[in-house]
Amino acid sequence: MDTIPPDTPLPTEAVRLLEALLRNDDPTHRALLAQLPHLRVTGRCACPCASIDFTPDRAAVAAPGAGNPVAEALIVDADGEPVGGALVFTQDGYLSALEVHTWQDEPITRLPSPERLRQG
Ligand SMILES: [Zn+2]
Questions:
Q1: Cα–Cα distances in Å, from 28 out to 8, 10, 35, 60, 75?
Q2: Ligand 1 centre and the CA of 42: distance in Å?
Q3: Tens-level pLDDT at each residue, the chain (120 residues)
Q4: CA of 66 to the centre of ligand 1 (A)
Q5: How far is the CA of 33 from the centre of ligand 1 (A)?
Q6: How far apart are CA 84 and CA 103, in angstroms?
Q7: What is the pTM of this model?
């Protein structure tokens, strides 16, 4: 993990991606969406990929019971071909990580836009 300055807010592209991954009528997802404004970055993947770790202000939010991964989707390229996946993880019911992985040689170094997500 690289050193992250304390109190680093979540990048906008990560917020948009989490909103897209968690957007449905699931009560667990709704509770997790309420944590988004309270998330702070705690770390990044050691490899060049765009995976990111975070934690909310636990005093400010509710923690639903949540399995792992709590949400996932395929990532497709500009031609609509699947190139990898996006996964959302929780710890003790709090959002804790957004992971992007690929089946190609080069890691995904920038978080994809929500338009690149497909349900697998
Ligand atoms: Zn990585």
A1: 25, 21, 11, 17, 23
A2: 15
A3: 556 676 788 999 999 999 999 987 889 999 999 999 999 999 999 999 999 999 999 999 999 988 899 999 999 999 999 999 999 999 999 999 999 999 999 999 999 999 999 987
A4: 23
A5: 24
A6: 6
A7: 0.90
